[in-house]
Amino acid sequence: MIDKILLQAPLFVLIFARCFAMLMTLPLFSMRSASRVAKIALAGYLSFFIFSQNGYYNYEGYITEDQIFSLQYVLLLVGEVLIGVIIGFYITIIFSSFSTAGQFIAFQMGLSAASSYDALSQVENPLLGQFFNLIAMLIFMQNQWFQKLFLGGLTASFKTLNAINLVQHQNNLVEFLLSGLTKLFSDALIIALPVVGTLLLISVCTGLLSKAAPQMNLLSEGFPIMILVAFFILMVVFPNIVDFFLRSFSQAFSELERLFLGISGERI
Q1: In whole angstroms, what is the distance from residue 146 CA to residue 141 CA?
Q2: pLDDT for 248 beyond 80
């Protein structure tokens, strides 16, 4: 197998470029604390596995011995990196929707100022947003979505998608990314709606009571009440939130597969 890789090194480099680009943008693997050497080793292992599984490759007709260092090969390499970034970026969008939902809830609770650096999203994030992000990551790992992404989605993408098809169907790609950003905010609002809606009603009722009886000073007492109510609602609806996480991951992978099949021209 090593001799085959050495004989077809340009094809192996293209596979490695897609795997490494996906790892660099994928949640958990894109953390700064993750070793760069470990990422390169994992990308090399994935490339070795994919190269041994596929008996053919879509770029074999575009690469010859005298075109290894040509501009055409460089553009194909850039296209492979772009495909890997798209896969990792779309998975990141899914996790961002859960983190955004936690930010909406924290803002309504009055805890938006209690924020710190989130190692998973690598941005300043309220504590509740970090909690949702961590729960989503645990669900993602527990249901073996990483294995499905590496062993299923990534391997299948080499059989159905290449950089040439990506350029020919760039409109489909732009629509896909825009729909992913739209889904980010819609999923975040769906997750946060029970808590945000209830806290909004409590804020309105507190304001009306404070206007009717100013001596009660309900605004100062409403802050701990809103926190307790918010955590109680989260405790009640948490099983439904977990089910929504699972459906979101399943739907996202279906959309990603539909994009690959649509670009490659196969029937969905």
Answers
A1: 6
A2: yes
Name the residue with tokens 């809830």. 105
**Beta-strand relationship, 123-126 and 115-118:** antiparallel
Single pTM value for the model:
0.77
Is 62's pLDDT higher than 70?
no
Interatomic CA distance for residues 13 and 20, integer angstroms: 10
- Distance (Å, rounded) from C-alpha 88 to C-alpha 22? 5
Count of CA atoms in the C-beta half-sphere (13 A) of 51: 26
pLDDT in tens, 122-139: 677 788 888 888 888 888
Question: Length of the chain in residues, anyone?
Answer: 268
Contacts of residue 236, defined as CB under 8 A and 6 or more positions apart, other chains included, come to none
